[in-house]
């Protein structure tokens, strides 16, 4: 009985989605079908491919991705602590195939922006009218002396791309003895998932607390002087795990010599400018930049790391008809220090802007307005979570950060003079919402 | 078909001038958490497609003007104008209400039925599909979400506006809360 219900539900879902979305009548039926190639099947790329087909089923969409299964980075810190099974974060590409998207498992090796073609490792070639690049990030291992890609895959996992390294780190933490030190080295910003390292610290502490490792230490060696949701993290760390002198979690800022310059893989020692810190588990998150395929094409014009794009369309500033979304791009209100956060939700939002824009363009319709939103939950205990939301609009061709529709969960209630604690139900709700968010974004992008 | 053509024509007219209100674009930002067409697949997140327009408007504006507590939504809606909120409410109210299949326990269902006939049925009806004017549909809404909502009404620290809901939710036994949510979640029609 249950199976039938579920089938009915899936059918109803499909009916609901096709009936509702504005679909363009055969405006370009006479022309050749527009061809879009999407490179990268993460949250950004998958969403772009799906929404292109949702908005105009006549578009020929090819998604090129090297893995068969995607693993969500959001909530993967819960896998490290042992609180979540990694399979709850995994999804394949069948849902997109059912929408008529050609999913090609391959690696893009070359893009020719003049001929408008994409070449792959297996020797295939694809022509495009528009190219959506959602390549994520690649890591700059040389920035930390002694660190290599091979070490990251074995003894010094960064686990900053969810998958095998997440599980290695989980095993290392499980094997860490009481009294052991877990070091998290944070690279200079901007980096993928701004609150991620600090959520990870909490999840590691949670594991230790629940596994009788009361004397364990979580040491965050940070290249930066502040971080996302800082007041919320510090409050939770203090209350739940002890923070600072004598606490389980300790944070060393960049100006306090927190930046890790070198590592000795044998002794698992991290070297900062003047200090050395020996860990039992060493989790160095290397600095990263736009995925190689975008960077090699010369699109990473911002500090040689990130791809600059147009606010109303996400089209690259460097190459016509190439749209760069997700962690690889940079956008937002940079002057006020409100850049787009590098998050899954943000990537999906950018993907929807691109899809709407391309559909309008292919059908010779005026461009729709662009709006960008973000929601990002951090889970620091089974009953303690919080979030940050962002809203950006485009005015006069520029991104505008909308302060009224943005911000973190409240740190305190009451007034500034007389602060009161936030009732625990708020923190508990956001743990539940984090899970609901995950299930819905996975479906919105991949189903 | 005619409807589709009309929508495209409106798209034409509205786009050129200034940033004309394009409710589809706005609604797509809701999809991340509430599903395409407002059909959620996340247990803690409510489906919103097919809920009454007035209910959706009221709740969003209560969040915007701090008349109703929320963990996340009260921050999000503050970035939207009243006109945009109204347009979103109309948009989602026109979607089809899709009850979501959830695992059902006969024991909990029976307990829930007793709990709702005492506390909820007067306003929400026996199945939750045909409620009083100011109430949302709750047949096949996610049980987890409804349980969390009831907990909000029962918590002193949570600002909830509806006097009758508050009073009723608070007089329920703790064990009846998940049971009532389970009961309405299990209703298919």
Describe this structure as you would to a colleague:
The complex is a heterodimer of chains A (447) and B (189). Chain A is an alpha/beta fold and 447 residues long. Chain A has a domain at 147-287: FAD/NAD(P)-binding domain (3-Layer(bba) Sandwich). Helix content of chain A is 29%, strand content 26%. Chain A has helices at 2-20, 43-55, 77-81, 94-98, 149-152, 164-175, 196-210, 230-240, 292-296, 344-362, 424-446; strands at residues 35-39, 60-65, 70-71, 90-91, 102-105, 108-112, 117-120, 125-127, 130-133, 137-139, 181-186, 217-222, 249-252, 262-264, 269-271, 276-278, 281-284, 288-290, 307-308, 322-324, 329-330, 332-333, 338-339, 371-381, 384-395, 398-401, 407-408, 412-414, 419-421. A 5-stranded parallel beta sheet of chain A has the order 5-2-1-9-20, covered by helices on one side. A 4-stranded parallel beta sheet of chain A has the order 13-12-11-17, with helices on one face. In chain A, strands 24, 25, 26 and 27 form a 4-stranded antiparallel beta sheet that branches. The longest helix of chain A is centred in the C-terminal third of the chain and has 23 residues, at 424-446. The radius of gyration of chain A is 22 Å and the shape is globular. In chain A, 52% of the residues are buried. Chain B has 2 domains: 2-93, Cytochrome c-like domain (Cytochrome Bc1 Complex, Chain D, domain 2, Orthogonal Bundle), CATH 1.10.760.10; 106-186, Cytochrome c-like domain (Cytochrome Bc1 Complex, Chain D, domain 2), CATH 1.10.760. In chain B, helix 2 (23-34) packs across helix 5 and helix 3 (53-64) packs antiparallel against helix 5. Chain B starts with a helix and ends with a helix.
């Amino acid at each position: 009985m249950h199976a039938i219900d579920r089938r009915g539900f899936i059918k109803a879902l499909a009916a609901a989605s096709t009936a509702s979305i504005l679909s363009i009548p055969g405006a370009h039926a006479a022309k050749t079908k527009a061809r879009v190639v999407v490179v990268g099947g993460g949250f950004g790329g998958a969403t772009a491919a799906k929404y292109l087909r949702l908005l105009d089923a006549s578009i020929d969409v090819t998604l090129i991705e090297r893995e068969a299964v995607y693993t969500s980075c959001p909530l993967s810190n819960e896998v490290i602590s042992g609180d979540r099974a990694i399979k709850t974060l995994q999804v394949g590409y069948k849902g997109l195939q059912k929408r008529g998207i050609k999913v090609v498992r391959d690696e893009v090796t070359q893009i020719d922006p003049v001929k408008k073609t994409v070449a792959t490792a297996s020797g295939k070639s694809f022509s495009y009218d528009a190219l959506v690049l959602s390549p994520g990030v690649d890591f700059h291992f040389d920035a930390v002396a002694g660190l290599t890609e091979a070490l990251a895959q074995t003894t010094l996992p960064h686990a900053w791309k969810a998958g095998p390294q997440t599980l290695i780190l989980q095993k290392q933490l499980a094997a860490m003895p009481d009294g052991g030190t877990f070091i998290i080295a944070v690279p200079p910003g901007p980096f993928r998932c701004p609150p991620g390292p600090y959520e990870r610290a909490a999840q590691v502490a949670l594991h230790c607390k629940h596994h009788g490792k009361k004397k364990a230490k979580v040491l965050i060696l940070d290249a930066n002087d502040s971080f996302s949701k800082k007041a919320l993290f510090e409050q939770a760390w203090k209350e739940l795990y002890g923070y600072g002198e004598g606490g389980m979690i300790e944070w060393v800022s960049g100006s306090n010599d927190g930046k890790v310059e070198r590592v000795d893989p044998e002794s698992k020692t991290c070297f900062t400018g003047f200090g050395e810190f020996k860990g039992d588990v060493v989790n160095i998150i290397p600095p990263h930049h736009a995925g190689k395929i975008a960077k090699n094409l010369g699109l990473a014009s911002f500090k040689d790391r990130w791809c600059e794009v147009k606010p109303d369309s996400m089209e690259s500033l460097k190459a016509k008809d190439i749209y760069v979304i997700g962690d690889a791009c940079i956008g937002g209100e940079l002057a006020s220090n409100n850049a787009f956060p590098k998050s899954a939700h943000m990537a999906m939002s950018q993907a929807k802007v691109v899809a709407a824009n391309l559909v309008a363009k292919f059908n010779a319709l005026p461009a729709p307005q662009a709006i960008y939103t973000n929601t990002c939950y951090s889970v620091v205990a089974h009953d303690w979570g919080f979030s940050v939301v962002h809203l950006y609009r485009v005015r006069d061709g520029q991104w505008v950060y909308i302060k009224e529709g943005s911000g973190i969960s409240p740190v305190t209630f009451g007034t500034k003079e007389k602060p009161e604690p936030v009732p625990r139900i708020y923190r508990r709700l956001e743990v539940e919402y984090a899970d609901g968010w995950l299930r819905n974004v996975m479906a919105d992008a991949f189903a | 078909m005619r409807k589709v053509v009309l929508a495209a024509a409106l798209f034409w007219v509205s786009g050129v001038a200034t940033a004309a209100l394009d409710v589809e674009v706005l609604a797509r930002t809701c999809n991340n958490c509430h599903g395409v067409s407002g059909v959620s697949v996340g247990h803690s997140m409510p489906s919103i497609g097919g809920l009454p327009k007035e209910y959706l408007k009221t709740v969003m504006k209560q969040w915007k003007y701090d008349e109703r507590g929320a963990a996340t939504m009260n921050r999000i809606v503050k970035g939207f104008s009243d006109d945009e909120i109204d347009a979103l409410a109309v948009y989602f109210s026109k979607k089809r209400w899709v009850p979501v299949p959830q695992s059902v326990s006969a024991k909990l269902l029976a307990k829930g039925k007793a709990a709702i006939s005492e506390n909820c049925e007067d306003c929400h009806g026996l199945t939750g599909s045909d409620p009083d004017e100011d109430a949302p549909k709750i047949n096949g809404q996610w049980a987890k979400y409804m349980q969390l909502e009831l907990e909000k009404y029962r918590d002193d620290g949570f600002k909830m506006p509806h006097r009758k809901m508050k009073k009723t939710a608070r007089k329920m036994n703790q064990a009846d809360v998940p049971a009532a949510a389970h009961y309405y979640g299990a209703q298919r029609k």
